[in-house]
Amino acid sequence: MMFKNIFRSANLISHFNRGNNLLVRTVKMSSATNSYQTLNVTVPKEFLYHVELNRPNNLNAMNDTLWMEIKNCFQTLGHDENCRVIVLSGAGKIFCAGLDFLEASQMGEKLADHEDIARRAKILKEQIVRYQECMTSLELCRKPVLAAVHSACVGAGVDMITAADMRYCTQDAWFQVKEVDIGMAADVGTLQRLPKVIGNDSLARELCYTARKLKSEEAASIGLVSKVFPDKESMMQGVMTIAATIASKSPVAVQITKENLIHSRDHTVQEGLDHIASYNQMALQSEDFINATVAAATKEKNVLFAKL
């Protein structure tokens, strides 16, 4: 009965949709912001945001400013109605060299101010949790994040991309869980997410225990990346095309889909089913569902959706 009523109202909805499309076209988009010191944020297409790690002279190594700006950026875009999808890439020669060791050495100076192990441990834990929250901001962001990796992706770079929704790379790309080589265990997300991303616990352990380089062809074969491109230019074109397709879909549908995929990953099948049922009892009453359903029935391909 619901679908019958929807189709009976096709003319009304089409009229509403045309007005809605006009609204989308005429409302001013939020401008690209370059207020960040270590990120370059642009809007190459409506609803599609490009976040670029922008410390090329430092191989996009993660200093404290970059950690914090990543968190701020993805939290901000997660609530920005003008943003529906995010492409993440790196400027310069490589995607990310991992931790900035020059700045990290300053932590030793801070710890040296305290002789007691409990007080030093408190400082370290607070710092670790801060950095964990920065990587998790990609996962908590309501908008899909597409990571585009060229050349090296090391240490914290792997933490970052495993928190993204989808990953793509160039033919010359390689990945490395580097932490054991510097006498530590990865502590901001790789050990928790990598096994689930590739679905191979044995291989994940091998990569984390040995710190060997994972090249692009193998990364694709194990599912770490969706596709390998010949070079950075073709990769960015391909990823932007995929992102634009996502941006054209209902933001209600896409954002609920992301949230439920993450929820279901960490819960039982039944808990995942209960979760999506709770969401869709509301979402199926959304104008997005009505507009998309009418478009499917009338073979309308260029449906635009209101901001969310």
Q: Could you explain how this protein is built, in words?
A:
Helices cover 53% and strands 13% of the residues. The longest helix has 24 residues. The relative contact order is 0.13.
Briefly say what this structure is.
This protein has 308 residues and is α/β, with parallel strands linked by helices.
Record keyword descriptors for this entry.
single chain, 308 residues, alpha/beta, 6-stranded mixed sheet, 3-stranded mixed sheet, 9 strands, globular, disordered N terminus
The tally of strands reads: 9
- Kindly, what is the distance between the CA atoms of the first and last residues, rounded to a whole number of angstroms? 28 Å
Structural class: alpha/beta
Number of helices: 13
Q: Taking strands numbered 1, 2, ... along the chain, how are they ordered across the largest sheet?
A: 1-2-3-4-6-9
Note the run of SSEs as H and E.
HHEEHEHHEEHEEHHEHEHHHH
Estimate the strand proportion. 5-15%
Low-confidence stretches: 1-32
Helix content: 40-55%
Rg result: 22 Å
* Coarse shape: globular
Give the arrangement of secondary structure elements.
Elements lengths: L1 H7 L1 H17 L12 E7 L2 E6 L10 H15 L6 E6 L10 H11 L5 H24 L4 E5 L2 E3 L1 H7 L3 E5 L3 E3 L13 H9 L2 H10 L3 E2 H6 L5 E3 L2 H16 L3 H15 L3 H15 L3 H12 L10
Parallel strand pairs: 2-3, 3-4, 4-6, 5-7, 6-9
Antiparallel strand pairs: 1-2, 7-8
Helix pairs in contact: 2-13, 3-5, 6-7, 7-8, 11-12
